């Protein structure tokens, strides 16, 4: 339990964190990796370069400070982050290191404003928050290992086959090298792939959503090749998979994780909205709904640049033809000659109002600008927050 004085001191720093939070977390990561480069084997380097990881950590620190007197309010966020930590194999021994460098960054950025009283309060508060993470994650580790077909750490899987889904997306079917069973998962969850491409000094770890319904003897991930663009380097892992992960290639995988999952306790209609490779968790949810809740109406809306970038088009069309409770719609940003779609340009509230049931549960995923557009459209249509569900690929961010 934190003392009232500690709580009051932490809450007094909330305005400062709102202004300086990302500066603090940027300094934190720089100093941490300078002194502990071995931790670069765990963190996503691309998110570090783009500032997404420091922004996400700043948001988490701010939320912890703002809710320090009611930490139970941030347990959902703790569980979401904890799932990623378990997938990455973050362990209890990492937390004291993080605490040391976080306090150091607060002192470095705030200077004399970081009084001994403030630093001591944050040290005490960090201990309580870290223990909450460690406790939640310990249970997640136990569950992942004890589940039928489950395992701990990273397990070698073999690429059984690969299927080109579009000009930029390829699916990889993965079976365990030991021939044993695999853990089931909830539609919407992801697995974590660890590779060490030639010439890279550290291992590279990425989360990839499982793109088919659970229940099979293999996992499927569908990966977009991230090419270099102005201000954005090429994706190290996605390009490695596209160029080097052939049939027979062995990849290290940690057990399925994630909190962005389909609520199958409901019987109201469902609307699934995806942009680009954001279709991966949506297809898993779609296949599950059609198989396990055939009386539940489902609408699938997908946005892509054009037909050449549209993955699994025939598969979705086949599902729609075989299931009268399903309807699907396409939006192409800039259609090619011969492309057929229901809308050109971008998804907007006016179009959604014509094609979806406003009383449905809404799930969406895709690039951040796409997600902001969809979120804004759903709010414009008056969809209540409890029926809006989404996930970021990578560190969490803000849509409003």
From TrEMBL:
Start and end of every Globin domain? 1-138
Enzyme Commission number(s) = 1.14.12.17
SUPFAM superfamilies named in the record: Ferredoxin reductase-like, C-terminal NADP-linked domain, Globin-like, Riboflavin synthase domain-like
**So which domain of life are we looking at?**
Bacteria
- The UniProt annotation places FAD binding at 190, 392-395
Reaction equation(s) it catalyzes: 2 nitric oxide + NADPH + 2 O2 = 2 nitrate + NADP(+) + H(+); 2 nitric oxide + NADH + 2 O2 = 2 nitrate + NAD(+) + H(+)
User: Which cofactors does this gene product need?
Assistant: FAD; heme b
Q: Which Gene3D superfamilies match?
A: Globins (1.10.490.10), Nucleotide-binding domain of ferredoxin-NADP reductase (FNR) module (3.40.50.80), Translation factors (2.40.30.10)
User: Per the database record, which ranges form the FAD-binding FR-type domain?
Assistant: 152-263
Give me the residues that bind heme b, please.
Answer: 85
Q: Does the keyword Transport apply?
A: yes
- Protein residues bound to NADP(+): 276-281
**What's the stated role of this polypeptide?**
Is involved in NO detoxification in an aerobic process, termed nitric oxide dioxygenase (NOD) reaction that utilizes O(2) and NAD(P)H to convert NO to nitrate, which protects the bacterium from various noxious nitrogen compounds. Therefore, plays a central role in the inducible response to nitrosative stress.
Q: Which family does it belong to?
A: Belongs to the globin family. Two-domain flavohemoproteins subfamily. In the C-terminal section; belongs to the flavoprotein pyridine nucleotide cytochrome reductase family.
Entries under NCBIfam families matching the protein: PRK13289.1
- What note about domains is in the entry? Consists of two distinct domains; an N-terminal heme-containing oxygen-binding domain and a C-terminal reductase domain with binding sites for FAD and NAD(P)H.
How is this protein named in the record? Flavohemoprotein
Which organism's genome codes for this protein?
Answer: Paenibacillus cineris
């Amino acid at each position: 339990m934190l003392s009232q004085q500690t709580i009051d001191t932490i809450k007094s720093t909330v305005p400062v964190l709102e202004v300086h939070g990302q500066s603090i977390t940027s300094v934190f990561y720089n100093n941490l990796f300078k002194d502990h480069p071995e931790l670069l084997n765990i963190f996503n380097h691309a998110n570090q370069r783009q500032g997404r990881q420091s922004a996400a950590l700043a948001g988490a620190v701010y939320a912890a400070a703002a809710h320090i007197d009611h930490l139970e309010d941030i347990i959902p966020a703790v569980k979401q982050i904890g799932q990623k930590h378990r997938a990455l194999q973050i362990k209890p021994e990492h937390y004291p290191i993080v605490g040391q460098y976080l306090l150091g960054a607060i002192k470095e950025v705030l200077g004399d404003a970081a009084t001994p009283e403030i630093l001591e309060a944050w040290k005490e508060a960090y201990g309580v928050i870290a223990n909450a993470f460690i406790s939640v994650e310990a249970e997640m580790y136990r569950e992942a290992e004890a589940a039928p077909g489950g395992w701990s750490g990273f397990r070698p899987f073999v690429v059984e086959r690969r299927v080109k889904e579009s000009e930029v997306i390829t699916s990889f079917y993965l079976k365990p090298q030991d021939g044993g069973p695999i853990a089931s998962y909830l539609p919407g969850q992801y697995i974590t792939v660890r590779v060490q491409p030639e010439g890279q000094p550290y291992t590279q770890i990425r989360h990839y959503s499982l793109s088919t319904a659970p229940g099979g003897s293999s996992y499927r991930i569908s990966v977009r090749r991230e090419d270099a663009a102005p201000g954005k380097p090429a994706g190290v892992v996605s390009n490695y998979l596209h160029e080097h992960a052939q049939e027979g290639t062995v990849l290290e995988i940690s057990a399925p994780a994630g909190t962005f999952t389909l609520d199958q306790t409901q019987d109201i209609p469902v609307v699934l909205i995806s942009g680009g490779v954001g279709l991966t968790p949506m297809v898993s949810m779609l296949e599950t709904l059609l198989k396990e809740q055939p009386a539940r109406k489902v609408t699938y809306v997908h946005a892509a640049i054009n037909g050449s970038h549209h993955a699994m088009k025939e598969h979705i069309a086949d599902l729609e033809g075989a299931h009268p409770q399903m309807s699907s719609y396409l939006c192409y940003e800039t259609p090619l000659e011969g492309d057929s779609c229901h809308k050109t340009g971008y998804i907007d509230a006016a179009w959604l109002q014509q094609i979806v049931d406003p009383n449905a549960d809404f799930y969406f995923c895709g690039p951040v600008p796409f997600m902001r557009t969809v979120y804004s459209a759903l709010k414009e249509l008056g969809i209540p927050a409890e029926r809006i569900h989404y996930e970021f690929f990578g560190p969490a961010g803000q849509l409003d």
